[in-house]
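Troubleshooting log. The previous structure file for this entry was overwritten by mistake, so regenerating from the original sequence record. Sequence copied from the archived sheet and checked twice against the printout by T.R.
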Amino acid sequence: MRISIELVPRGIEHLQSELQLIKAKFPSINTVNIPDLMRLDIRSWEGTAISKTFYDNCIPHIRAINFDLNKNITITEYLNLHRISEILVITGDHPQDINRKVYPVTSTDFIKKIKSECPNIKVYAAIDPYRNSIRKEYEYVQQKLDAGTDGFFTQPFFDIRLMEVYMELLEGSDIFWGVSPVTSLRSRNYWEVKNNAVFPKSFEPTLQWNIDFARRALDFSHGTNSHIYFMPIKTDLETYLAGIFS
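Regenerated output below.
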């Protein structure tokens, strides 16, 4: 089983400090995944190269709309140079800065392209249980599999029952289940309005509720031979992980 932590590359020293902490105190974590945020100076693959000095298994998020598929995907040279053998492909939101160049490329377009040019790279795609009906999301999953996807990272779940539904639909797939703490009403509103997330009736915007859910999601992953990643966006990293793994 693989347990990943999603770390935002806010700066080199900050990222190294978080990696050192996790490596020293939480040996159960064996994978790191790095998002690609356009407002930051460090791109995901650069953050992943830094992470590779601590962990063998490091996965950058790659935004498909940043690449012109009429040309070779030059990023593969960087990936190979730094021994980055896994990536997570997302379509990507359009940047707020209108001067940034983007292309009309979907995640499935990019997956087909990179698998044809670099079949040695393991490619994960995203699953979002909230953006469509379950049927439409399942159809989208099949399109990604047809494009050459090797596995999936999900958007964070907040209900084991919904995870069970997707586990049945995705039986046989390599899955990283997403878990992210939501510890305020404002954060809950963001997830509901921005991402159409669904919270169970039992949900409480407390650290303890989120730690308890993370433990149950971890047990679920163990029991289904799948993987998990934790995304503590605004929660103290050490406190959150200590609660899960204590």
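The chain has nine helices and eight strands. Archived copy saved in two places this time.
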